[in-house]
Fold this protein.
Amino acid sequence: MAITKGFRALVDEAMAQITTYSVEQVQARLSDPKLQIVDIRDIRELDAGTLPDAFHAPRGMLEFWVDPESPYHKKIFNDDSREFVLFCGAGWRSALATRALQDMGMRNVAHIDGGYAEWVKSGAPTVTLEQHKAARPVRS
């Protein structure tokens, strides 16, 4: 059976309905306590590094971790005063994920245009997986 809508169309539709930040916009807010960056990449992608203070929420578990009714819920997502800014490798998965969270009712969610690849290309700060594990507070 042939698909009737490809991933590009899905991403384009999502991009038209979500908030998208440039790397520079997010970088300027790194010290903002109301900003929570969320890395939705697969655990294997973290070997390349991540953003400072990012919370890792794998794409496959994101909706379950956000939903308070889910047995997998993570309390970090209860904070309505924070803006959750998602990123993935190239910005496609994070666009779709941001749209999915909006469909669930979240309004304090956005994503980074170009994802981790654009972040690295622009020279924005990164940390190794080891640095990230050593620095992050225990959160759930």
